[in-house]
Write a structure and sequence with these properties.
By secondary structure, the chain is mainly α. The chain has helices spanning about 1-75, 80.
Length: about 100
């Protein structure tokens, strides 16, 4: 009878240990999943910010390209370019610093 009681106690102890291990693993996995969700949110926010900055840069590039085309057209059609005089295409740019103009 004593032997059976010991086996029952051992089985109960093993069962409790397995339950504790599974519970610990579940808690660890839950924390890991929460951490991954947080990292995903942060990465999505960073991606949205990068996409917005990229769109701003692309818009600035389109604007500069259009200005460049306009300046090239005006240089081709200006009377000073036909007479051989050199003109300063940057002189009309009010958005440039004084040192660059």
């Amino acid at each position: 009878n004593h032997f059976l009681t010991e086996q029952l106690v051992e089985a109960s102890l093993e069962s409790a240990q397995h339950f504790e291990v599974r519970s610990h693993d579940r808690n660890t996995l839950w924390r890991f999943a929460q951490d991954m969700r947080q990292r995903l949110k942060e990465e999505e926010a960073a991606r949205e910010l990068a996409e917005a900055r990229l769109e701003e840069a692309a818009e600035a590039l389109r604007t500069l390209a259009a200005e460049n085309v306009q300046m090239a057209k005006s240089l081709r059609t200006s009377p000073s370019s036909r007479s051989g005089k050199e003109s300063d295409p940057w002189a009309s740019r009010s958005d440039l610093p004084a040192a660059a103009a």
